[in-house]
Amino acid sequence: MTTTTGSTSRTAPALVPDDDGHPPARHFLAPQSMGRRLVWATLLAVLVVWSMRGAGVSPGTLGGGDARTKMAEFLSEFVHPELGLSYLAEVGSAAIETLHISITSLVIGILIGAPLSLFAASNLSTGAGSGLPRWQRALRFAPYWVARGILNLLRAIPELVWALIFITAVGLGPFAGALAIGIHAGGLLGKLWAEQLEGVDPAPVDAVRLLGVGRLGVASLAVVPQARRNLISLGMYQWECNVRAATIVGFVGAGGIGQQVDVSIRLFRYSETSTLILTILVMVFAADALSTVVRRALR
Amino acid sequence: MQVVLEDVTKRYRPGQAPAVAGISLDVEAGERLSVIGPSGAGKTTLFRLLTRSLVPDSGRVRVGGAELDRLGHRDLRALRRRMGVIHQRGDLVPMSSALTNVAAGALGGMGSRSALRLSLRGPSGDTARRAYEALDEVGIASLAHARVDELSGGQRQRVAVARLLMQRPALIMADEPTASVDPRSAGVVLDALERLATAGATLLLATHDLSIARRQHRILALQHGRLAFAGGPEELAADVVERVYAADPASAPEAGGRPLSWGCR
């Protein structure tokens, strides 16, 4: 008896239609039958085993004699970081270049992501609230799909690949790195911002639209003010990611501290690698702390 | 502004019972009409059809002489500028000041650039002066710079009315504007709406409060999306109200804590 009551009370809310009279959707976490669960578990197990075989997982190689001596060699030098003043100055300037790349790429990312996010937010699309028949509305949604497509493209290609592309265009150095990270950041920010814009309370947006205000007016007066805090917070988070990415693109010659890491590993100067990794750690922690402070100030 | 509906039907989902079923209606410019009926009777749907936020499945809607389904994007925007909508919950933009929200009411006639300027710097010049005046008219000029989400429900509804005063619409659709506010604010809201109507605007007022409904020229009663009654306040008999609200007694005037009041206040 108790179990029956329990299950009805759990499924009861799902039976009530929402305000617009739409029938309820069954939640994907709703209680399922034992057979279904077994099928899902089997599928998941097959996926994991298949992936591990594909990735060439073999614990023997990792624990083998050769790997062990090399790791020991690396670690013994690693605990003695290179702290010579001239080397530290070199690392410092590379770190500052990394910072420059991260900030420049954030600006590039905002310049790309902000306009695209306005088109990629469905509630700001030309078709939204236009009261047109379905097929005409679908046509008006064309810019939305184009913007979504561009954002996906920018995001799907990794920063390192963008860096290689820009090195052939503008040559080795930090500018190629900033462009590469900026483009990728634009794709990410555009999508994340569009989602924030879509998530705002629709009632005030409709109210402003019904005043006869145009799309830019609706965006700037009704949508962005509601999402402002989250937009800034995501921007700060993106900068954090850019700092991390800026330490990587140096491996392919696109400036920043990564270039030094690459050189030190190739020349087996593990004590220098140690200094560089510690510097990167400090930078990433600092960026994280700063963005946390800013985000908290917005609350 | 004149409003004409001809046999209008709207279903939210095919196969579902219609939210509005075969309604025909003719509202003269300057007429004051109240719409009563239980929750889900189709009052809100009716308003959303008039602003073309919804497209009817069949039938025709004419507002101010314009056939809505023949209007292009621009013409629809121009028409919407002359329609003022106020909901039970003010629908103001949170995180913005009361003043900015009110000033937005004047935006319909301006371009995108003034919208951008308003959002970045707040209102200025003549717009700002008129926005202050509108807030003063509803008695909350002192709250002009308060953030809307920090105001009480009654204060928010007054801001929404000030926005309406700023917009100066020719057709007002008020969807239970006093349902969730304190009595004093409700009085201010109704006075302002009725003053706008006296100045020549057409007023459509959805309400469960019969004393308010009876103050208008004509009363419509909706039930299951159909017109159950249409006529002057003196023709509305008690049994009509009982029959209309029988489908959903929970939203009937008595059940809402407000006694059925037949006299004028």
What characteristics describe this protein?
heterodimer, A: about 300 residues, mainly alpha, MetI-like fold, about 75% helix, globular, B: about 260 residues, alpha/beta, Rossmann fold, six-stranded mixed beta sheet, four-stranded antiparallel beta sheet, about 20% strand
Kindly identify the CATH topology of chain A: MetI-like fold
Determine the oligomeric state from the structure. heterodimer
Any idea what the CATH architecture of the domain at 1-82 and 204-265 in chain B is? 3-Layer(aba) Sandwich
Specify the number of helices of chain A. Answer: 13
Main β-sheet of chain A, in a few words? Answer: none
Structure, described:
The complex is a heterodimer of chains A (299) and B (265). By secondary structure, chain A is an all-alpha fold. Chain A has a single domain, classed as MetI-like fold. The N terminus of chain A is likely disordered. Chain B has 265 residues and is of the alpha/beta class. Chain B has a domain of 144 residues: 3-Layer(aba) Sandwich (Rossmann fold). Chain B is 34% helix and 21% strand. A six-stranded mixed sheet of chain B has the order 6-7-8-3-9-10, with helices on both faces. Chain B has a four-stranded antiparallel sheet with strand order 2-1-4-5, with helices on one face. In chain B, α5 crosses α6 and α6 runs parallel beside α7. Chain B is globular. The C terminus of chain B is likely disordered. At the A-B interface, α10 and α11 of A face α2 and α4 of B.
Question: Secondary-structure map with pairings?
Answer:
The complex is a heterodimer of chains A (299) and B (265).
Chain A: H1 2-11, H2 34-54, H3 59-63, H4 65-78, H5 85-120, H6 134-140, H7 142-156, H8 159-170, H9 174-198, H10 202-209, H11 215-248, H12 257-266, H13 270-298
Helix pairs in contact in A: 4-13, 5-7, 5-9, 5-11, 5-13, 7-9, 8-9, 9-11, 10-11, 11-13, 12-13
Chain B: E1 3-10, E2 20-27, E3 32-36, H1 43-50, E4 58-63, E5 66-67, H2 73-81, E6 83-86, H3 98-103, H4 112-121, H5 125-137, H6 153-167, E7 171-175, H7 183-198, E8 202-206, H8 210-213, E9 218-223, E10 226-231, H9 238-246
Helix pairs in contact in B: 5-6, 6-7
